[in-house]
Amino acid sequence: MVDYDKVTDSILSRHTNSRLIIGIDGLSRSGKTTFTVELGERLLRHGKAVCIFHIDDYIVERKKRYDTEFDQWYEYYNLQWDVERLREQLFSKLSQAEEISLPFYDSCLDQLGDKTVALSSDCILIVEGVFLQRAEWRDYFDFVVYLDCPREKRFERESASAKANLDKFGLRYWKAEDFYMNAIAPLANADMIISSE
């Protein structure tokens, strides 16, 4: 069971009168979204202003991340998001900007449309998503929580239709995850590790 009190207390102890930028990292289906929603609600109950960003809201159109000349794992890790654009328009502005405009992905239309988010000067910003500790983004966080969940458990949480396409997991998702774990070492670099089994 996740010890939300421990995480909440750790964050509250770090928050002063300025912004605090929290990263919730973890591989696919590790429980990041559920964890982030609960954490945000707990911080709100403590009287904190909270703003949450979900990295999967900012993926690019399908034509830019599928059927390219690159291997599938590379597409997922490097092309699923415009990494540099997010660095410039999101991460580099988190500590100071009064508002942030971002390319929000509409999955039904498979297109991007800008959305603007207003930020208070003393809010706690929570960014949740996979591969958050990649080199381009890691230094923008004040505190990173990594949700650690075994691959087998995460795979159980997939839909039946997703599970039927095992080749896609092997060639796309799991290879990208292995690259992240080996090249970036998120467990070693996170400020806190939470078992989300």
UniProtKB/TrEMBL annotation:
It comes from the Bacteria. SUPFAM superfamilies: P-loop containing nucleoside triphosphate hydrolases. NCBIfam families: PRK07667.1. This is AAA family ATPase. The lineage of its organism: Bacteria, Bacillati, Bacillota, Bacilli, Bacillales.
